[in-house]
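Contributing new records

If you add data, match the layout below exactly. Sequence lines come first and carry their own label; structure lines follow with theirs. Keep one chain per record. Anything else will be rejected by the validation script.
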Amino acid sequence: MCLLQTMNEFEINTPLRAAAFIAQTAHESAGYSAFLENLNYSAQALLKTWPNRFTPESAAVYARQPEKIANHVYINRLGNGDEVSGDGWRYRGRGVIQTTGHINYKACGIGLGLDLIAFPELLEQPLNAFRSAGWYWKNRNCNSFADSGDFIGLTKAINGGLNGLDDRKAYYGRAKSVFGIL
């Protein structure tokens, strides 16, 4: 119900748009099973995921400490403060599109009429988790990428890069099949 309500609210209203939205959000939320970013990384995973933020030595220090990891990787980014501020942890990825960072929580909260700065955990509630993705989708003009079939451009608009592209494409193929899109 939350998915359909969100797609209706944010004009994700064609089979191609719906397939693309489902593909991207399903990937970002581990098949709609995770509305909160999991930062419980091993040292090896930290080096693979954030090669510019960790050395082998620092990765060993941060490994398996999710709060410490969040406060380090999101330091002074996306409107967050320094590591001591706790903003990285407070504004870590939430919702089915993983809204991240103080600046994005503030903008999303304004867009949805929610106080996400004081209550960031509201994005863990199913309806808000989906609506935050719809808000992000609309504000990044993602329907235009979906309409033109530019899945690479769409992935970059959602993720900033091409992380998980094969998984996203697999979801996209399944969703297109369900909607009867060749």
